[in-house]
Amino acid sequence: MTKIHNLGFPRIGAKRELKFALESYWNGESSRNELETFGKQLRRRHWQAQSGLDWVPVGDFAFYDQVLDMSFTLGNLPERVRDFHGDALDNYFRVARGRSAQSAPEAAACCSGVAAGEMTKWFDTNYHYIVPEFTAATEFKLDASRLLEQLAEAKAQGIAAKPVIIGPVTYLWLGKAKDDSYKLALLPKLLPVYAELLEALANAGVEWVQIDEPILVTELDAVWQNAFHTAYQHLSDCQVKLLLATYFGQLAENLGLAANLPVAGLHVDAINGRDDVEALIAQWPADKVLSLGVINGRNIWKTDLNAVLDSLEPIAQQLGERLWLAPSCSLLHVPVDLDNEQKLDAEIKSWLAFAKQKLGELRVLATALNQGRDAVKAELDANRAAIEARRNSARVNNPAVKAALADITPQLARRKSSYAERALKQAALLKLPKFPTTTIGSFPQTSEIRLARSQFKSGKLDEASYKDAMRGEISRCVREQEALGLDVFVHGEAERNDMVEYFGEQLDGYAFSQAGWVQSYGSRCVKPPILFGDISRPRPMTVEWIGYAQSLTDKPMKGMLTGPVTILNWSFVRDDQPRSVTCKQLALAIRAEVLDLEKAGIGVIQIDEAALREGLPLRQSQWQAYLDWAVESFRITTGGVADETQIHTHMCYSEFNDIIAAIADMDADAITIETSRSDMELLDAFEHFNYPNGIGPGVYDIHSPNIPSEQHIVALMCKAAERIPAEQLWVNPDCGLKTRQWHEVIPALTQMVAAAKTLRTTLGRSAT
Ligand SMILES: Nc1nc2c(c(=O)[nH]1)N[C@@H](CNc1ccc(C(=O)N[C@@H](CCC(=O)N[C@@H](CCC(=O)N[C@@H](CCC(=O)O)C(=O)O)C(=O)O)C(=O)O)cc1)CN2
Ligand SMILES: [Zn+2]
Q1: pLDDT of residue 384
Q2: Which of 46, 688, 703, 712 is catalytic?
Q3: Does one domain contain both 350 and 444?
Q4: Which residue from 185, 345, 365, 687 could staple onto 723, CB 3.0 to 4.6 Å apart?
Q5: CB of residue 343 inside a 6 A radius of ligand 1
Q6: What cofactor is needed (predicted)?
């Protein structure tokens, strides 16, 4: 009998219930008790949605982040929050979100101002986790209470619980040594706590524990490989069975290592690691479970069940009881329930599966394998029909787009002149001061803006009134920038729900959901649009808004677009052609928009590529191929403009050292980056590379409500000027301001503009 299980279920709730519960608790509108009770209800609901599986994950629920949960389980709290006197959950949120001294007057002095834990991307996904912090002196101490309570809840509900934890080697790999010590040296201290945790789970009656070690799909040097031997040898005599789970990629050279560790079972990603499966089966030990992740946990397409069964049937014959099936990874990365979509085009909807539907597919596969395909004939026939309909649909294929793609020449991706020549012409036209100031695009997305949009979408507000409201926001934004004295303006992005979804909604080849929410971090969610077909731009997407904004001011208004690589990486994309092809189709659409903006008199155009780095393959050996087509796609968007048109790009969350050549190759006239939290260290890469074009190193952290001081900004810019010639420097925040409030933005930008003026009188004269 083939068994089925799940690695993790989306916890935010089908209608973002957890988001609203959290925010109401944080705002003081509900009690801790209410929040805890709500968490219980949500877990119950999610376990019920997984009924019929042989094993259901427990411990995948987190109020903020599963990595932060693990840090608490291991007693690894940052030093700065250890003296907290209040409730553990409040301390957990303090690490997650930080707390400014001003915002916590009620707390004793020792419990007030605390910096938030650093957040970073979870592998190649759009999910962000809280980075564990280590020092050489870090000690671990088990707190299994969260897991044991959730296990007891599951048990009381008759759930076949399989606790999920992050494995010790991946846990160390995900963290950061704050004192630059060697974090792997902590392994001997960490392992006894893991052993104790497994013992506690065994005592609670647990049979299987899923222990996640996704770093096995990355390139590991000998010491990290060795850490796996040490760790799993140490844990090999525990009383529970360990299912070592890997996902997001191929084991490749780590296959032998993963297959031979002393654990009771191994889960592999049979979608992204498809090429491992044959080799694994060939050498599979007689006493081990092999779990194949055959349902894609990263996208929203229906699985071709008949094709999967063709390949699984012989494997099931061979492995018998030892074969388990699951989604490729946790379903955290897909929306909860397709049944909630009322407006999705029926044809496209018939091609899709969200989390609940994916588990339904798993049940069909198990029945087909265990009882024969006839037992689920109707389901398999319907699935075949849907797969074929999608494959043959005229809506997927657009010959004109294919022809335009075939016509791409290297010329298309090349500006007419070199940066040096362009810079002279742009300077003559724009007449900007030294250290020009600008912002990254968005201004506060107020609840009035969101409410207006929500009413427009539900038909309560007509289009004309909605547009009026947005124009009102844009003109407010222009007025504020005039008053602040910024140099290059933005329109503020009021009309955009999200920088990617907004473009998806306007491009042909895209569908979008009403409630397809996916957690990005904490209570923040995104609704990735669904790219199902060849991409084209039926009409200009931003020209009216940007043109309106420009009409209100004599200052240059920066046109604001999202780049093709970022649109690709933050959408659910088709799986029937290479990503590079889809990306170039997006590039042609954005190129047309760039040219329309230029024609409308917009002289500065920013094309955001915030997700360029995130799209890097997990294995470095595949980086160059990705960077080649990603950079070319960006250059296609800009290659058609006149020398006088100034192209900006923006990237946040990026480490640049190892991709600086590709960044330079993008050849934007100016790039704005996030640097304030790293104290300008991220500029090292640009300095060593002698990066020739304009750079705006972010001068303050927009994730924090704190207001930066003029002196602090001047000091940061002086640091920047030690690395980069002053005439190349711009002054701007780290990222867009959409998550901030106006009362935070105005004082912060006031300080920034004052700092730029000071810099002009001090550094400005000596610099040239
Ligand atoms: N796609 C994408 N990925 C990204 C980022 C990004 O900006 N976009 N940034 C980074 C992550 N940072 C993020 C920062 C903020 C939010 C964010 O604020 N998300 C919003 C949702 C944004 C959105 O789509 N809003 C819609 C829907 C608004 C809404 O909730 N409306 C209410 C009613 C209005 C109200 O009362 O507020 C409803 O429909 O019920 C809109 O503006 O139209 C949220 O979680 O709250 C998400 C990610 C990395 N990945
Ligand atoms: Zn950004």
Answers
A1: 98
A2: 703
A3: no
A4: 687
A5: no
A6: Zn(2+)
Handedness of CA 752, 558, 743, 528 (dihedral sign): negative
Active site residue 703: yes
For residue 681, the model assigns a pLDDT of: 86
Residue holding tokens 């609670």? 204
Interface ipTM > 0.85: yes
Could you list the residue range(s) of the whole structural domain that residue 482 is in? 437-497+674-763
Residue ranges in the chain modelled with pLDDT below 50? 104-109, 767-768
C-beta 568 within 6 A of ligand 1: no
- Residue 111 is predicted with a pLDDT of 55
Residue type, 116: A
**CA of residue 474 to ligand 1 center, whole Å:** 19
pLDDT in tens, 486-497: 999 999 999 999
Residue 524, marked binder:
yes
Residue by residue, DSSP assigns 606-665 as EEE-TTTTTTS-SSGGGHHHHHHHHHHHHHHHHTTS-TTSEEEEEE-S---GGGHHHHHH
Whole-structure pTM value: 0.96
Atom of ligand 1 nearest to the CA of 570: 1
Number of C-beta neighbours around residue 491 at 10 A = 30
**394, 425, 452 - which closes a domain:** 394
CATH number of domain containing 731: 3.20.20.210
Domain count, the chain: 2
CA of 331 to the centre of ligand 2 (A): 26
Q: Which of these three, 365, 394, 423, is where a domain ends?
A: 394
Nearest CA-CA partner of 547 in 476, 602, 478:
602
